[in-house]
Design a protein that fits this description.
Elements: H1 2-21, H2 34-45, H3 51-69, H4 72-80, H5 85-99, H6 101-113, H7 119-137, H8 162-187, H9 194-206, E1 213-214, E2 220-226, H10 231-234, H11 240-252, E3 259-261, E4 267-270, H12 275-287, E5 291-299, E6 305-313, E7 328-329, H13 343-346, E8 370-372, E9 375-381, H14 388-393, E10 401-406, H15 416-431, E11 435-439, E12 445-447, E13 453-456, E14 463-469, E15 472-473, H16 477-481, H17 484-510
Parallel strand pairs: 2-3, 3-5, 4-5, 9-10, 10-11
Antiparallel strand pairs: 1-15, 2-14, 5-6, 6-7, 8-9, 11-12, 12-13
InterPro entries: Apolipo_AcylTrfase, C-N_Hydrolase, C-N_Hydrolase_sf, LNT_N
Organism: Vibrio agarilyticus
Pathway: Protein modification; lipoprotein biosynthesis (N-acyl transfer)
Length: about 500
């Protein structure tokens, strides 16, 4: 009996190890081939397993991936949750256990319906089903599309596909390659490797293509202020004005920039509490022919709170006035950080569910670009940058730059902020727009339209990043069509695999 249990656990334990290794494919490690080998190993591990056992193998793979890949979440829970370590571990374990459901779903469903070692199953059905499970993870309960495999390829050859179909297309191709390798190993037939050669040829053909045109004669000077305010001090009443004046003084030294950018919630006060200061800042920026863009927290007259972005100085508004309709208000809120699901039940349980600013309301999914010094900025606040279709929906023909403000101080010196920057870079590459990323304590950086970092400053330092950015004109295929063609292909691929399976079963049933 004991030997049987040990035998049954060999594959799940191996899957957990393989899943954990997947984290090495992402920033800061960026050993990108692992992100192809890992799903290949998962496909090999579920081979000839019953669907229930395959589901368990996939679940352990997910436990390994998310226990290592999102370990940064624990930093915020432990440092700011105000609970015993056992409770912290329980919350972190619950999140990992939930996220592992999606690779488990992939493995269980695949082995239930496509278990036979056939090229159509491993090259079409497996990648399509993987993408469906990723999509579900990015949608259910507001979604958490972190660690999609495609993000690991931002500096790899497959990145050329990002402007065509986004991170989903890259992920689809990666699992297709994993399927081709698995088929070669399992069937000892190597024709499936022709798919890898075809993808390599496509990379060679796509590399020289420029999807958008940089406007070389229209550069914009940017100054990003990294205040490096300790998270535990940020909302302390006695630190309000020292923090505000720190940003103001650093801005005063950079009035020659076209746009000065402060990070998410840089102003530790409700906007309605400091109208005189904001009016003076607006006048000073306008006097110096500059604009200031900052994160700020807002309270509406109906008592709702918003995480917002405000533009001052040279903007379409002549004078400063408090008007929520002229702000960008964050749409995609972070569960438990900016809103608490089932809050009436959970808030009495522990202080963690009463973190500062954890009761925000949502802005609209699509909102006007922020206009600062005649530049159009498509905004995304912090966590929102991971939702590619939302960012895409807010990019217009007039958009000059992508703008993301963040405060990753919650996550300390973990891998979280580095992964966050990796994801943000993918948005620039997908949409062919330079990216501006302003944070409280790093990673503050700007990229060009290919997602290549052109300037950055160290984490955990008070500093100002100066850069010259060149806007682009034109549309990438991804900006024009989004992920619709990818998911139409997913439907077609699953339909072909199901049809082929039924055609194969029909002669067998006829002879019975």
């Amino acid at each position: 009996m004991k030997l049987s249990i040990v035998h049954r656990l060999k594959r799940p334990v191996a899957a957990a190890f393989v899943g954990a290794l997947t984290t090495l494919a992402f920033a800061p490690f960026q050993i990108w081939p692992i992100a192809i080998l890992s799903p290949m190993m998962l496909l090999l591990l579920i081979h000839q397993q019953r669907p229930k056992h395959a589901l368990m193998i996939g679940y352990f793979w997910g436990l390994g991936q998310f226990a290592t890949g999102i370990s940064w979440v624990y930093v915020s829970i432990a440092n700011f949750g105000g609970m015993p370590i056992i409770a912290n571990l329980f919350l972190m374990g619950g999140l990992i256990a939930y996220l592992a459901i999606y690779p488990a779903l992939f493995a269980g469903v695949y082995q239930r319906y496509f278990a036979q070692v056939r090229a159509i199953n491993l090259l079409l059905a497996a990648p399509a089903l993987w993408l469906v499970c990723d999509w579900l993870r990015g949608w259910v309960m507001t979604g958490f599309p972190w660690l999609w495999l495609g993000y690991s390829q931002i500096d790899a050859p497959l990145s050329v596909f990002a402007p065509i179909g986004g991170v989903e297309l890259i992920t689809l191709l990666m699992v297709s390659i994993a399927g081709a390798l698995s088929y070669a190993v399992l069937s000892r037939r190597y024709m499936s490797l022709a798919l890898i050669a075809l993808i390599a040829a496509a990379i060679w053909a796509l590399k020289p293509i420029q999807w958008v045109t940089p406007m070389r004669d229209n550069t914009t000077s940017i100054a990003l202020i990294q205040g490096n305010i300790a998270q535990e001090l940020k909302w302390a009443p006695h630190q309000r004005w020292p923090t505000i004046m720190k940003y103001t003084d650093l801005s005063r030294e950079n009035w020659d920039a076209d746009i000065i950018i402060w990070p998410e919630a840089a102003i530790p006060a409700f906007e309605i509490e400091i109208p005189s200061f904001l009016s003076n800042l607006n006048s000073a920026a306008k006097m110096n022919n500059s604009a200031v863009v900052t994160g700020v927290v807002n309270q509406a007259s109906n008592g709702q709170f918003y995480n917002s972005i405000l533009a001052l100085g040279v903007t379409p508004q002549d004078e400063y006035r408090f008007d929520l309709s002229e702000r960008y208000n964050k749409h995609h809120l972070l569960p438990f950080g900016e809103f608490v699901p089932f809050g009436e039940l959970l808030r009495p349980i522990a202080p963690f569910f009463n973190l500062p600013m954890s009761s925000f309301s949502r802005g609209d999914f699509v909102q006007p670009n922020i206009i600062a010094n005649e530049r159009h900025l498509a905004p995304a606040l912090c966590y929102e940058i991971i939702f590619n279709e939302q960012v895409r929906a807010n990019v217009t023909d007039e958009t000059d730059f992508l703008l993301t403000l963040s405060n990753d101080a919650w996550f300390g010196a973990s891998i979280g902020p580095i992964q966050h920057m990796e994801i943000a870079r993918m948005r620039a590459l997908e949409l062919g727009k330079p990216l501006i990323r302003s944070t409280n304590n790093g990673i503050t950086a700007v990229t060009d339209h290919t997602g290549t970092v052109v300037a950055t400053i160290p984490q955990f330092e008070t500093a100002v990043l100066r850069a010259e950015l060149t806007p682009t004109r034109g549309q990438t295929p991804y900006q024009r069509w989004g992920t619709l063609p990818i998911y139409l292909w997913v439907i077609a691929a699953l339909a072909m695999a199901i049809f082929a399976k039924r055609q194969r079963q029909a002669p067998c049933e006829a002879t019975e």
